[in-house]
Hints:
This protein is α/β, with parallel strands linked by helices. It contains seven helices and five strands, in the order E-H-E-H-H-E-H-H-E-H-E-H. It has a single domain, classed as 3-Layer(aba) Sandwich (Rossmann fold).
Amino acid sequence: MKILGISCSPRKGGNTETLLRTALDAAQANGAEVEFFGISGKTIHPCDGCLACRTKGECHIKDDMQELTKKMWQADGIIIGTPVYFWNVTAQAKAVIDRTYSFVFSPQRPLRNKAAGAVVALGRSGSSEAIATLNSFFTGHRMIIVGNAIGFGGEKGTVKEDERGMTSAAGLGRSMVRYLQTGKL
Ligand SMILES: Cc1cc2nc3c(=O)[nH]c(=O)nc-3n(C[C@H](O)[C@H](O)[C@H](O)COP(=O)(O)O)c2cc1C
């Protein structure tokens, strides 16, 4: 059982990464093989709307999205992490989301029935909007939403002081493993 965590924060080692690694650690402790992929330092261009993927089934833009695509297709479960930027996901998260448009035109619908979850780091407000964006993404790909975790923090590492946020991140990791083992939420 493979669970992939994708951090869409441009800040390496920040609160999103802390929450996501907490979820992945809990999943690993419960028997999953886990992998962390951070977009920081990677190049994932935004979709340019050419729509060639509708006929070709793949995106013509060549960058680090090909590596991420392979990892997403191979995973049984995917947890996406993002900080809230202006009441929503980061531009980097949206670039990843939009670049998966090509998956919809791939005959096997590669993310269908995979387990999905979101972790969101924020200062104060906008978690609902960010979670809604990620849940729409999961639903669009016919994934099964297992849950989400929200952690409050500002400076790097401060999310660790949000005990409930950290606990819910670990809970998300465990829930995903349980779902993948039993088929039950
Ligand atoms: C450009 C920008 C926009 C932000 N917008 C919001 C916001 O709308 N709501 C909020 O609660 N926090 C906002 N924040 C704060 C971050 O969500 C918060 O610091 C988060 O913990 C950062 O996660 P990271 O350490 O993974 O980068 C913003 C931060 C930045 C840099």
